[in-house]
Amino acid sequence: MTARVRAPEFRGRGWLNTGGRELTLADLRGKVLLLDFWTFCCINCLHVLDELRPLEEKYGDALVVIGVHSPKFEHERDPDALAAAVERYGVTHPVLDDVEMATWQQYAAKAWPTLNVIDPEGYVVAAMAGEGHAEGLSRLLDELIATHEAKGTLHRGDGPYVPPAEPATPLRFPGKAIELDAGHLLVSDSARHSLVELAPDGETVVRRIGAGDRGRVDGPADTARFAEPQGVCRLPAHAAEVAGYDIVVADTVNHLLRGVRLETGEVTTVAGTGRQWRSTVDDHAHDALSVDLSSPWDVAWYDDRVVIAMAGIHQLWWFDPIKRTAGMYAGTTVEALRDGPLPDVWMAQPSGLSVSADGRRLWVADSETSALRYVEDGELHTAVGQGLFDFGHVDGPAEQALLQHPLGVGALPDGSVLIADTYNGAVRRFDPASGTVSTVADGLAEPSDLVVTGDGEVLVVESAAHRLTRLAPGALSAAGASTIAGARHRTERPPTDLAAGELTLDVIFEPPPGQKLDESFGPSTRLEISASPPELLLDGAGVGTELSRRLVLSDQVASGVLQVVAQAATCDAEAEHAACHLSRQDWGVPVRITPDGVHRLPLVLRGLDS
């Protein structure tokens, strides 16, 4: 029996969604608490927000979810940006602004997202990293509620959540946009779960496609439902005629692609099952309606098909609207930066796509590496960007320039490309001819996309300002651009001190209550390990089926990052028709090699203190 551990007290800058009230553990005694350590840039964290919604509804009078926002990027430290993100993603529980990561450290979190469960008496009873834990959490909550109801230590009733007021604006956190005929614009109105057609002035609403409520419903424009849609692209006329629709929409939180017929506004599902992808990578073509997707964030017509920025699994996929098939295009699901021939490359939350005027190059905003990348002739290249933890606002030669979590790109007719440098609040320009980066506009509120119109104007989707903004005439000229030598940042999470030589890496996983490891389709676990720089890891890199592995660390590399991807398949233990589940997490563990470092590194995919 492991000694019971008291939950550490909350420490942070302040609270959101509490009506201004500061919460303490004592205020919440008698409730089951679920702490969700997240950061709003992280797609896995956004997945967990959606996994928690049904639990909050089911256990509402006994469970209190607390979002502990522990930021990665500099922009995420801004309290106004955090407040906007809480509204944007429909967070309906209290959020602690853990700006200095004090609560993160007290709970020994090592990855985004991490979940901790605290019982009604104030003891930590479970910790788990990653996503895919909803079923296990439900069983654990059932046990805790039954136990503490019997003991008399559970106090049912309303929680501390106080909803904020929502301002009335025509758009609410728009995501992406394209130009239609006659200068009209089609915008994904993400927080209102719909598409909006605007007149050429970029302000007048012509029509709305979607009822405006979160959901998944096909049909006429006024009854169809989306869930936080993002990317939109128009099919070429020949493809649209065969497919029967004109627009492909990345219906992000539904994990679907939807088709829209412009003439009527009719919406239909064209790819995806609605289940989130939790499988293994393959290079096969699949029936588009039978394949699982994961947070598609943008779409573009390239290489005679729709390419999908599959942010949720750090890949690009393809969709053929004529053959009605879909499959993987680039990426291995490892979250990192590595170029080379497709598909064996590494990406990190690709979120924006744009095709060059000659159709040869597909530009990619790879947000978590703060990188501008491109696909050409079957290879992936990095134009700007240095990795997962390096970001800033620095112009000049591309190899030295820095971005901060860009979400959008827009190819220009001259071969250069504009970047919606989201967390810097800027529009940047990369010129391949000179190999330089410049700033063409700043002071924007989280720009998330760019529209280059047929007459040469540039519209910015200024997401956190809830509007489309035109770049000033001349902004794209050499005279209109500026060179900024701003701050360089590096995410400095506390490193783990390891000794050079042999290291045992253990991923700790215990099946949730009522489940067992599932060997029905082969090994139930998978572990993939790599390092940055690669020289840090002398032995032990690669993929295997055991969750424990012997590594050998170099004594010639002072520090680096161990990149670990683990997953475990489980199924219901007693059910006649057992449901299957997959838990998965990517860790980027900062390490420092020291003589006094340890020789074992435990990582918790799911663990119980019992």
Task: Walk me through what this model shows.
- The chain is mainly β and 610 residues long.
- 9% of the residues lie in helices and 40% in strands.
- Strands 1, 2, 3, 4, 5, 6, 7, 37, 40, 42 and 45 form an eleven-stranded mixed beta sheet that branches. Strands 36, 38, 39, 41, 43 and 44 form a six-stranded mixed beta sheet that branches.
- The longest helix is centred in the N-terminal third of the chain and has 18 residues, at 134-151.
- It is globular.
- The termini are close together.
- The model has no long low-confidence stretch (mean pLDDT 91).
- It holds the Pfam family AhpC-TSA.
Low-pLDDT segments: none
Q: How many separate helices?
A: 5
What's the overall geometry? globular
Number of strands: 45
Q: How far apart are the termini?
A: 6 Å
Give the proportion of residues in helices.
under 10%
* Biggest sheet features: 11 strands, mixed
pLDDT averaged residue by residue: 91
Radius of gyration: 24 Å
**Beta fraction of the residues?**
35-45%
Derived structural class: mainly beta
Protein name: Redoxin domain-containing protein
InterPro entries: 6-blade_b-propeller_TolB-like, AhpC/TSA, NHL2_NHL_rpt_dom, Thioredoxin-like_sf, Thioredoxin_domain
Pfam families: AhpC-TSA
